Amino acid sequence: MKHWIVVVSFFSLLGLCGSANAQKVTLDYYFNHEVHKGASGNTERFHYLWDEKGNSGFSVFGDAFKKTRATLDTLGAPPTTANLKGTAIYIIVDPDTKKESPNPNYINRDDINEIAAWVKKGGVLLMMANDSANVELPHFNNLAGKFGMHFNDDLQNHVTDDNHFEEGAVVTAGNPMFKTASKIFMKDVCSISLTGPTGAALKNSGGAVIIATTKYGKGTVVAVGDPWLYNEYTNGRLPAGFENDKAANDIVAWLIKQVKK
């Protein structure tokens, strides 16, 4: 009986360790809520969805998280501290403009205060913008500004067409955020201005900051000038030499590492 108790206790401990390593990653479905008519003719959600297998989806990015034993979730409601309870990493991608949604949910002061309070307690926030023609920057910048970041109304790494992929090339070799990817593709991104202790995590060949990071309380905030990890650029269609698929795993590993145990 004593041996049985020891064995049960051992496996219970393993279970607890496994649970501690399973981080919940929540993707915003509230500020980004794009819809279109699907193949059936019905209105349906699309763009940056975990289960979206097409080029505009995040299924490859989501799979990179699942490889770390993280669980994927979504939040289609305002990001209150109550709604974010249990979330280790919260991702906001490309908030809607009126061109993308007839009634977009703009990031307001209450949202900013709630998100900041959650980060301060140890949350990891990933903000992914876009060029200004395709993202609602003014309200997104109110949130970014809380952490010393500002998405600029500019266009970096402009790529003329598919015959000019090198125009979107960014060298990542030796960058601590990218352990395996040496060169990535980031097309038509906005740069990021920094204030305070916020640091530049990645610059393009022209010296513009395109990824920034900062600590806020016990938490971490990351800003990227583009939602560049969607399937179109991680599913193998890029020319040889570009390693966005590896970069997805690198970014995920870096984010998981920031989560407070």
Give structural notes.
By secondary structure, the chain is of the alpha/beta class. 25% of the residues lie in helices and 22% in strands. It contains five helices and 13 strands. The protein has helices at residues 2-21, 59-66, 109-120, 137-145, 244-258, and strands spanning 24-28, 35-37, 43-45, 71-75, 89-93, 124-128, 149-151, 169-171, 183-185, 192-194, 199-203, 209-216, 219-224. A seven-stranded mixed beta sheet has the order 4-1-5-6-13-12-11, sandwiched between helices. The protein has a two-stranded antiparallel sheet with strand order 2-3. Helix 2 packs across helix 5 (244-258). The two termini are 34 Å apart.
Ordered list of secondary-structure elements with their pairings:
Blueprint: H1 2-21, E1 24-28, E2 35-37, E3 43-45, H2 59-66, E4 71-75, E5 89-93, H3 109-120, E6 124-128, H4 137-145, E7 149-151, E8 169-171, E9 183-185, E10 192-194, E11 199-203, E12 209-216, E13 219-224, H5 244-258
Parallel strand pairs: 1-4, 1-5, 5-6, 6-13
Antiparallel strand pairs: 2-3, 7-10, 8-9, 11-12, 12-13
